[in-house]
């Protein structure tokens, strides 16, 4: 029961020159479902990524970091679903390396030119034999117009594939950006989300791309939460093939940088919000906007306290304007010198709390009206500065409990 | 569906010399239910309390702090349910003061000798007229053997009253301690819980009692969580009438101090665990014990990360040993230099994760066996020090969502 999440159409997903995608049904966890994705890029492609800060980071995340650091130039990405290869120790690392070795051999490149990703159940051994056996099928299907199937191949508890495209013009050249993401639970990305990929045919120097991926992640995947659980496998990767013919963006002061940055960020926000819209059991999308803070950090702290409160989330599920729960969360968010008499709260256009107490003009039926919408903005003004931050989240429903109580069965 | 929570019997709740309790059905929110409690103590009673750290602390909490600071000697406590009198601004403060004025007038004491408490819905005006009108009924029922009715009078979403007693001997004198508590949701006390009261006829000097209440709170109410939501009204109050005839405990080095402290703490733990056992929708009680940390603070941080994870809580609800979710929570708990290769995890006696990965000897059926119990200990060894901490929590069920989606209706 995703919130205003239209099924992406293959025709809307624009191929990115140089990027090919293929998939396999390798039977990693269940038979007859797409569970392996291979994405290849041409020589000279710049690749940058951000990864989970969970200390129990998965084996493939460790291998990704090593291979990016090796600097040999990335040529392919391989993703499996059904198993996260996390909490798997040395055998997990070996399985991830074996996957890279096998794919590298078939592509005629070095193992360090492969980035591996896994998503699924934690603490179970990766069935690497089945994964490797599926690679030839995926390679046989490589094509530029397979973005929709690629989005399908990385789904776990997602109810539908997540993908979108943007087109911009840089120096007279048409530049395409297409991205895919997945995730519906264990979502409170800290650095990036599990998993997001955006490819573009813009030409971007590696260090600039690294800045750009960080900026885009902070304004998209790093600003969403479903259940507050930071995954072991969060990864967001940006690939720039340079095949659009547009000029190389070699610094952040390049005239084209801001245009590309904003397009990537916009696309990343759409992909990130798709994850929230498809949050496990979600019936509502809430935008939590905190303003008038002393710093972005404290605005985010307050926004996450509200976004994680099970009491707030269940009240939204019930369309019940039990809005004192929001004030309670603001109060325990950890801003120790908060003057609550300066706090104001709006639900969309309805002014609920004024100067720390109930707005005398607030009428329950106005709150009720907004609460019944599928998309709601909670705006909190702290009255202590100029900073602001926005976090997107969803409500907490019976369905969330059902999904997570049954996930492995 | 409380977890191993026997209904307290009136005969098991021992009167505390000098403490009288009466209740009223004042119709604060609903008709014909106990919703006001008055508890009186004799002159010379020492009273100490700890209160919520939520910045949006309720009006009665502010008044309690003022009245304790006034130092005139507390003579009565008045509690209403059905309305938290929080987020109510100046009118809320005035309502709380009016309650104290009315009760003080009827008891012939000063308003500063009354401590007021409220619990219920936030952001709605307190119906102070109905509360005041109910006071004579409560005073008419004052008696020493009304502890069970007192526990009933402070319930909100609690499924049953919470009360217990202890008896100790100090210098040959029998000393009694009896306490009551309430709470089932918005429970992650930070300082104390909403609401706990313990009375004793021990004689304790005021500054010593303040130390004692802090110690007991930290080891009981401040170590439980249901949903991570710190209430606006959390309060834990300890009253010592001195009428047992036991010697005055005038310092922490007094021979009787440790005996009384341990008895209070033990009773407070039982009352706090009753709250978790009666957690909204709870079907399981989990004891999260984190060992081998560098500090108690980091052990608590890890324990709370596990205890708050909706994914962990729903897995326990399902009796599903999806134990990678626990490792993921340990990993994102914020211990930045955690060496995951030194982390070990047990479920009761079952060794699940060894040196950061799945224990090769772990068998799914062993995990499954423990997960089916109603009470489970999760033991996490961090492998980096000598500190430890314990937190008690419950699982996350369909019933939790139902209760909180329907609470106001």
UniProtKB/TrEMBL annotation, chains A, B:
Q: Which organism is it from?
A: Imbroritus primus
Q: What is this protein called?
A: Bifunctional glutamate N-acetyltransferase/amino-acid acetyltransferase ArgJ
Alphabetical UniProt keywords: Acyltransferase, Transferase
The EC number(s) given in the record are: 2.3.1.1, 2.3.1.35
* Class of this enzyme: transferase
